[in-house]
Amino acid sequence: MKRVLKTAWAASLLFSAFGGFGGGSTSVIAAGFNDIENHWAKETITWGQQEGLISGYPDGTFKPNAQVTEAEFVKMMVASFKTEVSEVQSPKHWADAYYYFAESKNYPLKGYQELADRDKPITRERVAEFVVGTVGKNYSGDQAIQYLIGFKLATGKVEGEMTIASFKGQDTLTRGEAAQFIRNLKINNVNYFRTRPYEPSPASGLPLMPSPTQVGLNQIMYVLNTHVMTKFPGYSVRSANHDGHFDTSTVTVIDGKNRNILVTQIEYDPKTKSIVLFHLLESEKEGNVEMTAASVKALGYPVPDNFADTLHTVLKEHKDQRVRAGQWTLYLKPDENLMTRMQIIVE
């Protein structure tokens, strides 16, 4: 006999999505984890904790580099999307309920028949196949990786590269990476599980791999979405890859309530693989200047903490100014005709 439970409740009562798994471990909701300060996934892990998706261990750690087993990943995914599962009365394995759910959706897992496989580390390739299944596609191996990268549901493990090879499909998944996979789905508005087709999806449905220019734009958008837009939720981001028709390509931040209002434009030079200009297009609305200042800092220019105040001053006084930002100088140049506009030129 089975009874239906809300995973959100099951997760909070039995074990958290990223905390203890199965074997009797006790998880905790900590004020902050003591082992993520310098970790690349710190902000994602913090986000997951604030969303109630992540907890750590009794010693205050999260263990972001610890390997994730297949069973742990399945449980993470299902619990994070607050999906209903059925509790098994006499389980053979602590993750039985999650495997029953995954099997009903035809998601590719090794542990359906061999219980021992459930407790082995899961590879990034298998994660790609599973994640692609959750959006209703059936791709395997390199095609699954191509789908994730092409539709911006994942990136490679090598900074500056977005290729199938850089995805490192045979590497095992870490807890930090698992948190990032789930956050990527949330950012891309994947909010429920679709059933994976039983027949392979056609290759014609695969997206093209991003060009070098698009890789740069994707990185800019990723940083903005994960480090800035979470603090300024009233905005959205889009890109324009000119594919060599112009010297630069752009990422634009848009007023989320009125998509016709462009707030900030960021020009990217594919030849130097660097940002050459931030163009503040609309400074009148409250928060626009602060969001732009946060974007500059998040994208690698270590401006002073009062940088937003400096931008306000330059706009008000309508006078050029230069600001040091690490190894760069930012030339703040207000528009000659429009008091609400300013260029931030990277020198």
From TrEMBL:
Pfam families: SLH
InterPro entries with a match to the protein in the record: SLH_dom
Boundaries of every SLH domain copy: 28-91
Annotated keywords: Signal
Signal peptide residue numbers: 1-30
Keyword ATP-binding included in the entry's annotation: no
Keyword set includes Signal: yes
Name this polypeptide is given: S-layer domain-containing protein
